[in-house]
Design brief:
There is one protein chain. The chain is built from 2 helices and 29 strands. The strands form 9 sheets. Strands 15, 16, 18, 21, 24, 26 and 29 form a 7-stranded antiparallel sheet that branches. It has a 4-stranded mixed sheet with strand order 3-4-5-6. 17% of the residues are buried.
Length: 377
């Protein structure tokens, strides 16, 4: 009877702490929430201890947990033994809550946190690569910000963008100017190393060192054009036999037998026994040198030089009144020639004549009629 009275008194005392709003207070007469537990002033340890379970115990009770137990909290004291799908996240001692299907980490485990990253640094992480990580578990990009502004993005496909939200490469840097700076690079001592080149789209690729031809392997004169060393186009031809030309008062005659080619480094000179033609590879200024010996009518005024086959007009030449039966005409000048046109060496006169290929006499014998062209710029 006395025991009943004591229990009844305790029940009445407990009920007296429940406020009119359905709030329960322990060690307080004025609860501020549904359950308000206040520490007293005694030496008794204060706190609230959740049910303590091992991972094995939670596995054994798996059928007891359903959607109705969502929000249940336990403190796991041991993680040895087997593991189940529901307890797959229970990897260390600590608080866990049930989300309706899985036990999820509730907060820091004892001895440090592998579930939460600390602003003061984290410890006790797994030494196995990938077990503990900072990142996402779904197909969403990981975004890093400072001062509220996005600075770096790791896309769900693994591309890293700095200044580029939609990174198109494994590392994509983007800024309004000079997005990348590298300092402290060591000088390479390997002859197998290759340079890095920047494509027109900004992509960095491996390139090759340019080949610099210090000693040209072609025939011709080395000249500088627009800061580059090139072999100037050159032609030098001699006559292989005498050429007889007819009367040509309207259209001059292309000189034949110019078949002894000394230099033609662009393979542009064409010649037969009855005609010739040539072209230049690039628009430019060309040095023209010509020495032609003519046998024709005294008192006439022949013209010999370069004719433009495209425009059907003289480009440059030399003429003079013939004073003797054998007369030499010499020309040395610089003119503009164009790659879009075709040219030829020609002769014109009101009477017929001959261009001998060699001279002879007391001064000796050798080729006399000579024509050459060389690019200057």
């Amino acid at each position: 009877m006395n025991l009943i009275k004591i229990n009844l008194a305790l029940i009445l005392l407990w009920l007296s702490t429940i406020s009119t709003f359905g709030q329960i207070g322990i060690n307080t007469e004025n609860p501020q929430s549904t359950l308000d537990i206040s520490a007293d002033n005694s030496n008794v340890a204060a706190g609230l201890i959740a049910p303590r379970q091992t991972r094995e115990q939670l596995i054994a009770k798996a059928t007891s947990y359903s959607i109705n137990q969502r929000g249940a909290i336990v403190y796991v004291t041991d993680v040895t033994g087997t593991i189940s799908s529901a307890t797959s996240n229970i990897t260390q001692v600590g608080y866990y809550y049930y989300d309706g299907s899985l036990w999820q980490p509730f907060g820091s485990g004892s001895g440090g946190s592998a579930d939460n990253w600390s602003i003061n640094g984290s410890g006790n992480l797994s030494t196995t690569h990938g077990v503990d990580y900072l990142g996402t578990t779904d197909g969403v990009d990981l975004v890093l910000k400072t001062n509220g502004t996005e600075r770096m993005t790791v896309t769900s496909t693994g591309n890293v963008g700095i200044g580029a939200e939609a990174a198109s490469n494994k590392l994509h840097l983007k800024d309004t100017s000079d997005p990348m700076k590298v300092e402290g690079l060591a000088i390479s001592s390997s002859s197998n190393d290759l340079p890095l080149v920047i494509g027109s789209d900004g992509t960095v690729r491996t390139g090759v060192f340019p080949s610099i031809n210090i000693v040209p392997d072609d025939v011709g004169t080395v000249i500088a054009i627009d800061g580059k060393l090139i072999i100037a186009q050159e032609m030098a031809v001699l006559m292989a036999a005498d050429f007889a030309f007819p009367v040509s008062t309207t259209t001059p005659v292309a000189i034949g037998n110019l078949t002894t080619i000394i230099v033609d480094n662009e393979n542009s000179f064409k010649a037969t026994a009855s005609t010739n033609s040539f072209s230049v590879k690039t628009d430019g200024v060309y040095l023209i040198t010509m020495n032609a010996q003519l046998i024709t009518g005294v008192g006439t005024k022949p013209f010999v030089g370069i004719w433009c086959d495209t425009d059907k007009a003289w480009v440059v030449g030399v003429n003079d009144v013939v004073s003797t039966a054998l007369q030499t005409y010499t020309l040395s000048t610089a003119i503009n020639l164009y790659a879009s046109k075709t040219y030829s060496l020609r002769v014109g006169n009101t009477v017929s004549g001959t261009i001998p290929w060699k001279s002879s006499g007391y001064t000796g014998e050798g080729p006399i009629s000579f024509y050459s062209l060389k690019r200057l710029k």
